Amino acid sequence: MSTRIRAATAACAAFALSATLGGCGLITAETPPNTLTVADYYTAEPGNTALTEILKTCGRATGVHVVREVMPRAQLVPKLLRDGAARTLPDLVLSDNPDLPKLASTGALLPLKGRTDTAGFYKSVLEAGTYDGELYGVAPGVNGLALFYDKAVFKKAGLEPPTTWKELRDTAAELTERHRYGLALSAVGTEEGSWQYEPFLWGNGGDLDGLGSKASVDSLTYWSGLFGDGSVSKSALNWQQSDVAEQFIGGHAAMMVNGSWQLAALDAEKGLDYGVVPLPVPERGDTPVTPLGGEVWAVPKGERQDKATEVLDCVLSPRNMYDWARLRADVPARPDVAKRLVKRQPDLAPFVAGVPAARARTTELGTVYPAVSEALYTALHQSVTGTLSPARALKAAQRDARSAVDDH
Amino acid sequence: MTTVVDRPAAPAAAPTPPTPDARAAARRTRLARMSFYVPSVLYLLLFFGYPITANVVMSFQDYTVTSFYDGDAPFNGLANYTAIFTDDLFGASLWHTVVFTVASLVAQFALGLALALYFRRRFPLGSVLRALLLLPWLLPLLVSGTVFRWLLDQDYGVVNQVLLSLHLVSDPVPWLVSPDHAMAAVVIANVWIGIPFNMVILYGGLQSVPPQLYEAASLDGAGAWGKFRHITWPLLRPVSAVVLMLGLIYTVKAFDVVMVLTQGGPADATQLLSTWSYQLSFTNLQFGQGAAVSNVLIVIAMVFALVYLRAVRAEQSER
What we know:
The structure holds two protein chains of two kinds.
Chain A: H1 3-18, E1 35-40, H2 47-62, E2 65-70, H3 73-86, E3 92-96, H4 100-105, H5 123-128, E4 130-131, E5 134-135, E6 141-142, E7 145-150, H6 151-157, H7 165-175, E8 181-184, H8 191-203, H9 214-228, H10 241-249, E9 253-259, H11 263-267, E10 274-277, E11 295-298, H12 305-315, H13 318-328, E12 331-332, H14 335-344, H15 349-354, H16 369-384, H17 390-407
Parallel strand pairs in A: 1-2, 1-3, 8-9
Antiparallel strand pairs in A: 3-11, 4-5, 6-12, 7-9, 7-10
Chain B: H1 20-35, H2 38-58, H3 65-70, H4 79-85, H5 88-118, H6 126-132, H7 135-138, H8 141-151, H9 158-165, H10 182-207, H11 211-219, H12 224-252, H13 256-261, H14 273-283, H15 287-318
Helix pairs in contact in B: 2-15, 4-15, 5-10, 5-12, 10-12, 12-15, 14-15
C-alpha cells in the first residue's frame, strides 16, 4: 500500500471514528475537461450569490467552467485534508485566513508571488496570506470589527457613541434596561469568540504569545467587567456573530461588536436606524487594532494550477474586487478600490480605516494559532463565569498555548 | 440444493465409515455455510476493524496536517497518551462523561419505564399518543439540539419564562452559560432524545408478561405496587439489562447534543471525552492526541459491550 493511500485511509479512519463528518470515499468523480473546482464555505447570503456571480464572470473571461463545492465552515479544513491525502484537491480554495498556514504547511499550495498581481494591496492583507515568508493566499476583500449602535436609542438617551473603554462601559451600563442589554458581542467557545476578543487584547497592548502579561490580564478584566455589570448578556457565551446581529436587530442590544459583512443584513431591516463607529480604545488617542478577517484564495498545486491562477487574477482585478466587496460589504484589498467603495457606502468607512493597522491572527503563531485560540476562548469563559479570575484563567491559557507551541 | 441440506437424523448410515464422497459433501456443506458469514465479516473488517486499527496506530504517531499530504507520520511512542493523561481536561472530561452517562441513563430509563407502564392501559387516542412520543427519536439530533438551545436560552427561552411565571425561580436560570447548570441542560436534552428508545423496548418487554400472573396476583390481594414489585419488575429484568447496556454504550459516545448546545463549554464544563477528542483533532489539529482520547473511549465502550455479551450469554444458558 502506498503511503499516499495509507494517509488517505488513515484520514478516513480518523473521520469515521471521531465524528463521522459525512462520506469518506477514495473514489472521486473525475473532473470533466475544461472545468475548475472551487471549495468554499459561503453558504450564507449575500456571499453565496456574489461568489457564484463573480466566478461565472471570470470563468467566461478565461474560458473555463467553474464549479463550486459549498460546505459549512467547520467542514472545509477537514475536507481539504482528506482531499490532500487522496490528491484530489480542488483547483481553487477559499478558506478563512487563520486556516491558511496549516494548509500551506502541508506543501500542497502554490506560492503565488510573481504568479498573481498583488501590486497596490494593503500590506496587512498580504501578510494575512503569508506563511513562512511565502505568499500563499490573497483576499479580494477583508473585514474587521467595529461598533454598531442604535441611533434611536442613543438619541432618546441623549448619548454619543463611545470612543474609549470607559465611555463604552458607562454607556453600556446606562443603556441596559429590562429587555435590552447595553452591548452585545460574541464570546462563543470557538474561533469566533477569540476573534471578537482580540481587539480588546491587542488594543490594550496584550499579545497572543504573552497571554499572561499584565496588559493581557487587564484587558480581560475590563472585558469580563462588561458582563459583570450586566451590560452584556451571559448568553453571549453561546452566541455566534449572526446571533449577535439578531439580538441587535431585535432591539435587545443598544450596541454590538460586529463585522462589516452584517451591513447588508442590517440594511435589509426596515425601521432599523444604526450607525457604525470604530471600536472604542483604552485611552483617547489610541489606535484600534482589529484582527484581520476574511477569506483568502489559495491555489493547490496541480495540473490545472495555471488556469486556476488565471481565474484568480480575474477575481482579484479591481473591477471584480469592487463588485465583490460591494455585494459582501467587505473592505476591498486595495486602498484605491476601497476609497471608491466608501463613497458609495459610507458605513464602510470605520472598517476601511481599521485595515492598515489590522493584524493577521497568524502572523506571530502560524500553525499554532488554532490551539492558542482555543486556550484563549476557554479563558474568556472561565473569567466570565467566575470559574477562574482573569489572571489565573490567562495564566492557564498561556500554559496551554506554550505546550501547543512545544508540540509543534 | 437437496445435497446441501443437513438431514436431522441418519441412523442407518452411522455404523459404516463415511465414504470419500460423503466427506466431500460434508465439506461442501461446511463451505456453503461459511460463505454466508463472508459478507458480514468483510463488512466488519472494512468498516470497524480497519478504522479502529488505524486509529490505534495513529494514537502512537505524531500526526499533523502535513502527514495527510505526504503520508509521513513518525511514531512517537506514548507521547500522545502522556500528553492527554497529564492534561487537566482528561480528568475533567472523564468525570463529565461519567456524570452525563449515569444521569442520562437513570432519567431515560425511569421516564421510559413510567411511560411504557402508562401506555399499557387502553384509553382513547392511546396509540396515537404513543406514536407521537416516538418523535424525539425521529428528529435529527441537530434539530432537537437547536430547539433546546432556544428553549433553554437564559433571556428569552421558554423554559425560564415558565419557571419565572410559576414563581419556581426568582431569576432566569443560566442553563447554557453557567458551568453549574450546563451539564444539567445537556442531560435534559439528551434524556428527552433517549426516552423513546427506552419506552419502546420496555413496552415490548411488558407485552411479554403474561396477564394471567396479574389476575392471580389480584386474587391474592396484591395492590398496584405489589404487582409491579413482584411481577413486572422481575420479569422485565432481562429487557431492562439490555436497555441499560445499549443506552450506556450510546450515551458514552454521545457527541452531537453537546456540540450543538454548548460546544463543550462554558469553560469546558460540558467537555466529554467525545467532544474533547473532536476538539483535539479538528480544532487544534493534534490528530494523534485526538485519536488517543477516542481510544480511551473505545476501551470504555468495549468493557461495557463485553459485560453486555456475558449477560446475554448467561441469560440464554438459563433458559
